[in-house]
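Curious: why this fold?
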Amino acid sequence: MPDWFGTSSPVLQALVATIGTYALTALGTLPVLFFRSAPRRLMDAMMGFAGGVMVAASCWSLLVPAIASGGVPAAAIGLLAGAAFFSLADQLLPHLHPEFPDEARVEGPRVTWRRPTLLMLAMTLHNFPEGMAVGVSFGGGELGAATALAVGIGLQNIPEGLAIALPLRRAGMTRGRAFFWGQLSAAVEPFAGVLGAVLVLASSAFLPYGMAAAAGAMLYVVVEELIPETVRSGTTDVATLGFIGGFAVMMSLDNALG
């Protein structure tokens, strides 16, 4: 880890880290410039991996520190609030599920907006808590744990970008446009990361609630969106193995760097 990064302000650390998670999304989207499709079993395994990373990050990188910082009541309140807010937003905002968007139906209020607009809303809704989680972690001052969380979020962003871009390419979208929408899926994370760090620095009391709320939102995404999407095609075996693999990787990262 560069010296300048370790001595930087938490806000700058959160910004750099979330720019990194965004860059990994763009990296994962690159294959769409060369391929129109990928084996569904591979994509289900990769998205299962992403879900495993998110669950492990919620547990090891967010809820455990939240309990240590504010106790079980604060962590429980934050967890429930994060999940409730995400559930409310899921119902009030018209959107498409960003993973495998060619299979998604419009959710939320009925509108006449075009599919790219609905996809953009979904991507913002999906990735905001991930960026917030990274920012809150850096704001809390635990550099190792925050770095581990950022690395884990970045790793699970790689298949997410591709899962958005490939269906768009198969549907006839040009390579450039499909890449644009895929990489855009994590563009909100730097903003959310900076916001999370600023909120913690403004009031340390926000730390356990913010970490737990981010965990609640991420767990909601996994259960409501990722798991159903990965088993839709019937490949529950590879999706499950991918999930366990992702959980193990994130658990190892957190304990190695935390």
